[in-house]
């Protein structure tokens, strides 16, 4: 798989280094009921949420080079709670 071009809303390496431990701890405390480990890179999930928040696009209009809307919105909804 090739790397995508970054969006202006993407996390820098420094910001990801701050956020990654929090997300890793959250995932450890909230295992999937189905045992599914997740097919998408969590940094890309966060980048997609930031993209949507910055652009205001509808979830269905997330670019195709980001994880699918269902996966992104799942985490958005969980973390919003």
SSE blueprint and pairings:
Elements: H1 13-29, H2 42-55, H3 69-80
Helix pairs in contact: 2-3
What does this 3D model show about the protein?
The structure is a single chain. The protein is an all-alpha fold and 81 residues long. The protein has a domain at 42-81. 53% of the residues lie in helices and 0% in strands. The protein contains three helices and no strands. The chain has helices at 13-29, 42-55, 69-80. Helix 2 crosses helix 3 (69-80). It is globular.
Contiguous helical run count = 3
Compute the average pLDDT. 91
Spatial gap, N to C terminus: 33 Å
Estimate the global geometry from the Cα principal axes: globular
- Which spans of ≥5 residues are poorly predicted at pLDDT below 50? none
InterPro entries: IS402-like_dom
Domain Insertion element IS402-like: 11-81
Pfam families: DUF4096 (PF13340)
Protein name: Transposase
């Amino acid at each position: 798989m090739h790397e995508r071009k970054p969006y202006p809303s993407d996390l820098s390496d420094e910001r990801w280094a701050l956020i990654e431990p929090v997300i890793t701890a959250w995932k450890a405390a909230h295992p999937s009921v189905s045992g599914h480990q997740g097919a998408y890179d969590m940094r890309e999930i966060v980048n997609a949420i930031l993209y949507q928040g910055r652009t205001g696009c509808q979830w269905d209009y997330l670019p195709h080079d980001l994880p699918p809307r269902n996966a992104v919105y799942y985490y958005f909804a969980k973390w919003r709670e």
